[in-house]
């Protein structure tokens, strides 16, 4: 056999690398405001590690979450379906009387669908989609779980919720010591180092609980922020410090990818689960309002994708989509089939420098209890430049033209009757589809 020479070897190696399935990593933060990522504009917070993903990948300017709160956004990302169509229109909580969702056990997750494609699957961090079987991570497609089952921690250092311990390694209760952000970073890095020694592609879902309240940055992080800007108010300073501590952890994860030789063949996506919480010092500028609200401050999220060799470094996209678009994107990148009935849209054409047809309708729903919501749902719909919405079940629907009025100050519901009627009909159709899916667990005595 003739010797193929140096260039031939390089070509064969390049073809072999390209034929490899990419590793897949989602980094999901909790309540991180649009303006609390410094690459999106002038800010008093510094996030050089998250900004690094923008320099080395693609920054999306018009992406929105699937919901204004945690559980529904997570359910949507992991299933590619609108959250009410998988039984999670609201927050799944540790107290059943105040829990407003139940992830449909019959719907496969992204992890379920990647395993037959040859992927090892893991979640590190916050789950928030169920506390018991069948909705535990290891029963929903993940080979490995190291993190927190519940909705939020009463403290980043005790890791308890209402006095209960929801920290787990797979299904074993654990009691680790340290700040939760540090723990999740360390566990994620350890997983990546283990996977580097294997030839199997992996999907890691790294879901931080930062910067969700309580706003508890490490003391040294807060001291650095106050030294840099002594005029910053106490609550804002604490949030900035918590975000910058989180950013440092993300940097360690990215560094681990580099040091272990994984970075060149790993698709990394970064996104927040919803807008930041204004009462807790978070910032969503220039958008109106924040977490829990269907104004864009509650929905617009930072969204970054890095994929060496596919995504052009420093590129940007104006495409308007939702966070669950990661579901079909990751499946297509892995060479796996996108299931029928998926509501999300793959971003692969955009990542490869092309375009997608548009605009598309974007639907949002949230169900909540308490006196302000009464256990009812409230919805929003975006179609092109127009947005129909309400922020509680008892208020009239509002209509905004987002192109002319991006800060949503002028309600056009009375002036634009035709558009109002069209979007109302479309919204009702979405509500009917979601209404066919139970959002409470089956009764223990069902069938008796």
Give the class from helix and strand content and strand pairing: alpha/beta
Query: What is the CATH architecture descriptor of the largest domain?
Result: 3-Layer(aba) Sandwich
Q: Please estimate the helix content.
A: 25-40%
Corresponding CATH superfamily of the largest domain: Alkaline Phosphatase, subunit A
Spell the H/E element sequence: HEHEHHEEEEEEHEHHEHEEHHEEEEH
Radius of gyration using CA atoms only:
22 Å
What CATH calls the topology of the largest domain is Alkaline Phosphatase, subunit A
Describe the structure concisely.
With 448 residues, this protein is an alpha/beta fold. It has helices spanning 5-19, 48-56, 70-79, 110-114, 180-196, 219-228, 234-259, 296-299, 326-333, 348-351, 417-434, and strands at 23-29, 58-64, 120-126, 144-148, 160-161, 164-165, 167-169, 172-173, 202-207, 266-272, 303-306, 315-322, 362-367, 377-383, 386-389, 398-401.
């Amino acid at each position: 056999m003739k010797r193929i020479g140096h260039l031939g070897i390089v070509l064969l190696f390049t073809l072999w690398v390209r034929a490899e399935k990419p590793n897949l990593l989602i980094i999901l933060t909790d309540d991180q405001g649009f303006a609390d990522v410094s690459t999106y504009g002038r800010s008093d917070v510094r996030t050089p590690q998250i900004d690094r993903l923008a320099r080395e990948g693609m920054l999306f300017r018009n992406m929105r979450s699937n919901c204004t709160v945690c559980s529904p956004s997570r359910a949507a990302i992991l299933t590619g379906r609108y959250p009410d169509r998988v039984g999670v229109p609201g927050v799944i909580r540790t107290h059943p009387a105040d829990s407003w969702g139940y992830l449909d056990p019959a719907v496969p997750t992204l992890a379920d669908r990647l395993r037959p494609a040859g992927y090892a699957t893991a979640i590190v961090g916050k789950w928030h989609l169920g506390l018991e079987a069948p909705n535990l991570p290891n029963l929903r497609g993940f080979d490995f779980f190291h993190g927190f089952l519940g909705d939020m921690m009463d403290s980043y250092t005790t890791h308890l919720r209402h006095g209960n311990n929801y920290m787990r390694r797979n299904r074993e209760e654990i009691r680790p010591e340290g700040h939760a952000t540090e723990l999740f970073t360390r566990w994620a890095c350890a997983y990546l180092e283990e996977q580097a020694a294997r030839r199997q592609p992996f999907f890691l879902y790294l879901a931080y609980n930062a910067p969700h309240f309580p706003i508890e940055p490490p003391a040294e992080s807060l001291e650095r922020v106050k030294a840099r800007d002594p005029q910053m108010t106490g609550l804002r300073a604490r949030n900035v410090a918590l975000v910058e501590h989180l950013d440092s952890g993300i940097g360690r994860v990215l560094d681990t990818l580099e040091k272990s030789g994984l970075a060149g063949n790993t698709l990394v996506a970064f996104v927040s689960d919803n807008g930041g919480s204004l009462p807790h010092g978070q910032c969503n500028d220039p958008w109106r309002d924040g977490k829990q609200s269907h104004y864009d401050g509650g929905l617009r999220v930072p969204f970054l994708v890095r994929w060496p060799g596919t995504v052009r470094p420093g590129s940007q996209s104006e495409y308007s989509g939702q966070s669950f678009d990661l579901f079909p994107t990751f499946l297509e990148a892995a060479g796996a089939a996108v299931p029928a009935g998926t509501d999300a849209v793959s971003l692969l054409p955009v990542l490869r420098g092309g375009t997608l047809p548009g605009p598309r309708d974007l639907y949002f729903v949230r169900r909540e209890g308490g006196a302000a919501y009464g256990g009812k749902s409230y919805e929003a719909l975006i179609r092109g430049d127009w947005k129909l919405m309400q922020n509680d079940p008892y208020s009239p629907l509002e209509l905004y033209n987002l192109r002319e009025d991006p800060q949503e100050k002028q309600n056009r519901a009375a002036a634009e009757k035709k558009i109002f009627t069209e979007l109302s009909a479309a919204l009702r159709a979405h509500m009917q589809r979601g209404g066919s899916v139970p959002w409470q667990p089956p009764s223990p005595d069902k069938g008796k």
